[in-house]
Write a structure and sequence with these properties.
The protein has 497 residues and is α/β, with parallel strands linked by helices. Helix content is 33%, strand content 19%. It is elongated. Bound molecules: ligand BES and zinc ion (ZN) (2 copies).
Length: 497
């Protein structure tokens, strides 16, 4: 891992990183800046100095000169996702080489499926920045971690490509910030700690921060947040972060985007206790909130010209003599009464209050919530994408466009009146979980729909399958992915364009 990645137009005497397509096998035409001669075309028969190198996506080869070949796969098949993977693999190779610098020679826009040069630079750098991260903030005296390499400088002569890279590195930084907090364990990161961290972030990047604490939430009638969090020694709270820049894009004049993130710092399940080791990993139950936190970090640091308000519903779902129970009936901030049938369906309870608070007190032009809400979404969609429920086609179009550009994939599921009726209770207005597990992820969304004003465009993203990975992948080491940060940034930017 490198301490940081810097950019320059060219770095003197640095090795070259040459992007090679598997179906062209030509060294790019740029002369290398250091000593040594450039290689010549060799058709599809491979490159003379690189036996065995096929140019497959993400394949790397270090030539005797010290230059690096980076495979990009077939020219017409290269997409942004492929560039992210190539960036990540390149990063790992440069790390092993402990490179101090490198000049990129990657020609993108020649194939039939020409990709915009700046988007290409962004994708490559996102891959590099996301791969240049690990969980080492708890490395102790017995650590096996390799020492961190000093900052590395990457040269790229193409101004558009470089500008894109700048953006990609910034997005990776905001994502890595979200990942860092997501990985912070529950014995440290509890609701009180989260509130302090949000305040610290707000001060350092320039956001407004307000925290509705436990007693205020009680007197405001936020039965969801207070019930879920009451059993923990660290009491629940609602964090509100606001980015209201001096310059708003003309197109975003009437936009006030509300982002809501489930921030359960730990989910034991409560009295409906998680059993058979399903509790392990529940520190990631705050990942929705971390996506919002990372997006707010990006909005402030990149000075995005859009008004955005982020809400984090912080609570720790614990077992204690003071915890809420199955059979409790609670009244939510908007007056809806809920019969608690399962204390493990806690996310929808904290989100319900935050969503109705947003509708009533913040009055956003659109709301997007993100939550590790159900195991059912993982059964339905696996780890390939998040599930999305949306009541508004223009908002859905914007989110689909953001998913396309960020590579953070989403797939729509239905949410109808029938699903809402399914959540009715005999003893209260609604129940938090139906005895039947049918349409499990939709039940979560249907519950949330009771807390959103019909007139406000709203999308709910269930990110339980994508918030963290169990083993090392191209872009992500085992641990949190920061899913949603880049998607939300692209959504915000979409409003400005
Ligand atoms: N935090 C979990 C959802 C979850 C499960 C996230 C697996 C990541 C991986 C959520 O609070 C939960 O426990 N949901 C229950 C809901 C049920 C009790 C209605 C579930 O999914 O089983
Ligand atoms: Zn739960
Ligand atoms: Zn949960």
């Amino acid at each position: 891992m490198f301490k940081s990645i810097k950019l320059a137009s060219t770095v003197k005497s640095a090795p070259l990183v040459a992007g090679i397509y598997s179906d062209v096998m030509t060294m790019p035409s740029q002369p290398r800046s250091g000593a040594g001669k450039s290689k010549s075309r060799n058709g599809n028969g491979g490159l003379p100095d690189a036996p065995g190198f096929k140019g497959e996506l993400g394949e790397t080869f270090v030539l005797s000169s010290g230059d690096v070949l980076l495979g990009l796969g077939k020219r017409d098949e290269l997409k942004l996702d492929g560039l992210r993977i190539a960036g990540a693999r390149l990063m790992k190779r440069l790390d092993r080489l402990a490179a101090k610098n490198a000049n990129l020679a990657i020609s993108i826009s020649q194939g039939q499926s020409a990709i915009d040069s700046s988007l290409a630079g962004r994708a490559l750098a996102e891959g590099m920045g996301l791969a240049n991260w690990r969980v080492d903030f708890f490395a102790g005296s017995a650590t096996n971690n390799k020492a961190i390499n000093p900052p590395m400088t990457i040269g790229s002569a193409d101004g558009d490509f470089r500008a894109g890279m700048q953006r990609g590195l910034a997005l990776a930084e905001s994502t890595n910030y979200a990942r860092q907090i997501a990985a912070t364990p529950p014995n440290i990161c509890n609701p009180t700690w989260m509130a302090a961290e949000a305040r610290r972030l707000a001060r350092s990047v320039g956001l407004r921060c307000k925290v509705i604490d436990y007693t205020q939430a009680q007197s405001m009638g936020m039965g969801g947040i207070t019930s879920v969090g009451q059993g923990s020694a660290s009491k629940p709270c609602l964090i509100i972060l606001e980015h209201r820049p001096p310059r708003i894009a003309p197109k975003a004049k009437d936009v006030k985007l509300g982002l809501v993130g489930k921030t359960i710092t730990y989910d034991t399940g409560g009295y409906s206790l998680k059993i058979n080791n399903t509790m392990k990993g529940m520190k990631y139950d705050k990942s929705g909130g971390m996506a919002v936190l990372g997006a707010m970090h990006a909005a402030a640091t990149l000075k995005l010209p859009v008004h955005v308000v982020g809400l984090l519903t912080c609570a720790e779902n614990m077992v204690s003599n003071n915890s809420y129970r199955p059979d409790d009936i609670i009244t939510m901030y908007n007056g809806v009464s809920v019969e608690v049938t399962n204390t493990d369906a806690e996310g929808r309870l904290v989100l319900g209050d935050a969503l109705s608070y947003a509708c009533k007190d913040i009055k956003p032009s659109a709301i997007v919530d993100l939550a590790t809400l159900t195991g059912g979404i993982v059964t339905a969609l696996g780890h390939f994408c998040a599930g999305i429920f949306c009541n508004d086609d223009p908002l859905l179009r914007r989110l689909n466009a953001a998913a396309e550009s960020s590579g953070e994939k989403i797939w729509r599921l239905p949410l109808w009146k029938d699903h809402k009726e399914f959540m009715r209770s005999q003893h209260a207005d609604i129940l938090n979980s139906n005895a039947s597990r049918n349409a499990h992820p939709i039940q979560g969304a249907a519950f949330l729909a009771y807390f959103v004003d019909d007139k406000i465009p709203w999308a709910h993203l269930d990110i339980a399958g994508v918030a963290n990975v169990d083993s090392d992948k191209d872009l992500f080491v085992q641990g949190p992915t920061g899913f949603g940060v880049r998607l939300l940034v692209d959504l915000m930017e979409g409003y400005a364009q």
